[in-house]
Amino acid sequence: MTFDLSIIVPLYNEEESIGPMYEAIQAAVQDLPGSVEIVFVDDGSRDRTFALAGALPRHSGNVHLRLVKFRRNFGQTAAMAAGIEHARGRILITMDGDLQNDPADIPLFLAKIDEGYDLVVGWRHDRQDHWSRVLPSKVANWLIGKATGVPIKDNGCSLKAYRAELIKEIPLYAEMHRFIPAMSSLAGARIAEIKVRHHARRFGQSKYGFSRIYKVFLDLLAISTILGFHRQPMLAFAGLAAIATGLGFVSLGSAIVYGMTPHDQPGIVFSGLAVLFGALAIFLMVLGLLSQLIYGTMARRFDPFRRLAARLIATEPEERPA
Amino acid sequence: MSTQNLMSTENLLSVVVPIRRDHDSLDRLHTTYRAALAADGRPLQFVYVVDGPLQASLDSLRRLKQAGEPIEIIHHAHSFGEAAALTTGLRHARGEIVMTLTEEAEVKPGELGKLLAAAREHDLVVARRMPPDGRAPGKQRKFELATSLLFGGRFHDLRSGVRVMRRAVGEEITLYGHQHHFLPLIAETHGFTVSEVEVDADRSARRPPAGPNLALVLDLLTAFFLIRFIRKPFRFFGGFGFAVLAIGGLATLYLVFARLFWGEALVDRPALILSSLMIVLGIQIISVGLIGEIITFSFTKEHKDYKVERIVD
Question: Does domain B3-229 have CATH number 3.90.550.10?
Answer without folding.
Answer: yes
